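User: structure tokens for Signal recognition particle receptor FtsY, please.
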Amino acid sequence: MFSFFKRKKADTPAEVVPAPAPAPTPAPVPTPAPAALAPEPVTQGLPEAELFIEETAERPTTEAEKKKSWMARLKAGLSKTSSNLSLLFVGARIDEDLYEELESALLMSDAGMDATQFLLDNLRRKVKEDKLLDAAAVKTALKELMIEMLQPLQKPLELGRHEPLVMMISGVNGAGKTTTIGKLAKHMQRSDQSVLLAAGDTFRAAAREQLMVWGQRNNVTVISQASGDPAAVAYDAVQSGKARGTDVVMVDTAGRLPTQLHLMEELKKIKRVIGKGMDGAPHETLLVIDGNTGQNALAQVKAFDDALQLTGLVITKLDGTAKGGVLAAIARTRPVPVYFIGVGEKLDDLQPFNAEEFVEALLG
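Assistant: Done. Predicted tokens:
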């Protein structure tokens, strides 16, 4: 489970990359002192919620310990929905009242009407066909249906398909986009991938500085311009990544609402310019979503997918206040793969999405 990424098979022919143009001069990033592995809090006016917090306690060492630790954090993050759903099956009779209460709990979890009706219709059918008579068996049947619904969203991010693998990352302000980029960069380094970041969020104050802090912490080069066009920054980063032989280039883009059409057009421009810098790029177009935003998250997926043709999602902040059911709504309405889910600010609080684990945490 904790093999964070999927690698392309070694016998696949390497992509032929045309001779690179001279590399642009990146913004210098100072080499971090040894203490950077456990940095002091940054006080540059950056939003506290988006600052990365490295674990200082001893990390679990075995795969079993890691899985147990992750499942505990995931269950805590989904506890709001889990408690509402699980209590329904305690000593319950299999009658119409149970279905009505289950419908209310699913809707309150942000599953949406379509996913809720789909689950209830299939649960009724399964109870009748399998002659289920006790609440525990009905709960198990619901688990199986939810896993089957969410399974199409489970897909690993495959590394090594291109050199560099270019990732364009979008999201509204406050979703945790920049923090997610920093975490992914660290995880990729653990997977022996060299990383280059592009500070393409030129609209938000302190966004460039925030990404530079990430570069310092991870000893990663950040391509930026003091007052540059975001598309130009992205293009420079792709060219630099090609010239350096970098494994992964991640382009941060400005946070915006999908209703801001002129800004959505700017995102389309960035994507087009990245494609001019490298054929077929960006190879991954990700959207970072705040798990607390409920049905609004589904609206964001639709809008950004229509504009950019998303290849993957990252759901953040499943930290106790989130409801979790929105993944069911996404699965039924716009099944874009969910590469990662996050339950907090720490590095290991971001992990690949696994449908079975998610449902187990949700229903217990």
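User: Anything notable?

Assistant: Residues 158-353 form a domain with the Rossmann fold fold (CATH 3.40.50.300).
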